[in-house]
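Inputs:
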Amino acid sequence: MNDTTGEPTAGEREVQELLELYAERRLRPDATAAGRLRAVLVAKAAEAAPAASVAVASTGAPWSQRRRLVAAVLGAAAVLVLAGGALAATGPGGPLYDLRLWVEEAMAPADPAAHAVAELEQLDQRIEEIMAAITGGDARAANAALRAYDDELDDAVLAGEADPGSLGAIEARVRAHLAVLQGLLDGAPDAALPGLRIAIEHSSQVLERLEEVDPGKPSEPPGKPSEPPGKPSEPPGKPSTVP
Amino acid sequence: MTSDDAAIERLVEAARTGDAEAFGRLFDHYHGPVYRFVASRVARPADAEDLTQLVFVKALEALPRYEARGAPFGGWLFRLARNTVIDHVRTRRDHTDLEAVAERPGDDAGPDDIVTMREALDEVAEALAELTDDQRDAIALRFFAGLSAREAAVAMDKQEGTIRGLQFRGIAALRRRLGLDEPTGGEPGGRIERTDDG
């Protein structure tokens, strides 16, 4: 930088131009993804609006003891969320996990076929989280992910009913996931076993329901599962929507 | 405070009082800068998208606490972004996924141009990677995100003068590393010197 004028020197300008080029070519966001995220955030902001209005309106007013207590708890929770970091907060059992699931669901495309694909990806992510939590011995995270998987199963069936062409893929995926869940029974933390059994039972029920919806599909040969236990049919693509 | 700053503050105040579209306009203003900052610090575009999403979700959640901190909104938002990136880098082994690097060739780019451009940008990426963490953050906040020195200072929890120093030394190191001038001192071989500023 020029000491007298404070303006960048020619060499500095050259570096700045290179940095601008680098940003233009390598750091450009995807406009479609940004548009979807914007829509989700605005919806979330609208949902939170009444609470925000009350909070702002109460600023400066005399607070009752109860209000102070609530504020203290909320403040502590916020500090925990920020201090805990992004990954811990949005992982299963983390304070932002439910919010992350909500964002994933809200960002799923409206087109029935694309929506079914998105539901399958979310099922894969839940299974990956369940596997990671159980093999890591984290029962709390496992139970959070198992509950999310249960909810996702129902969503996947609804998506399949809206797009019958995807029923076969959903059934194959759930069948593979069922084998994974059954394979996790050995070695799962005791506290995660009830949730794991519920997920297995629910998956079995979903398979029966899918077979009813799509009776023309040939059934698997008896005694021959589509995938070996402990191995999903294909590796999930992205590790998570929000790390 | 510039007119832009005042407009941002009005949007922030509206968003805090429940105006969802005001938050949407803040998103419009800051999404690109936040993404560029995050993408400059993580290897994969998919991670950059995920982390950018997380930054705005956290911002929405934390917005009611903004006023009490008294910082310019841009600085406050980028402090969230920087902390989010730091958490990400700490908790996972980041690796460069060369195939995932999204290259946007220019309109007039032929095959030779694309190769030349890719090599030049690879050199910039390597040069950036050799800066200290603080120098790289200062450069990314100032040039990729377009923050003022004051906003960058808030984002990095440092004095404005420190930010200017980090930026100056970062630019100088990049010039040496990219062969844009002859080094007058420092380490031989064009290797970027490590200072004690980060």
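Residues 52-87, 218-243 of chain A have pLDDT under 50 and may be disordered. Flag for discussion at group meeting.
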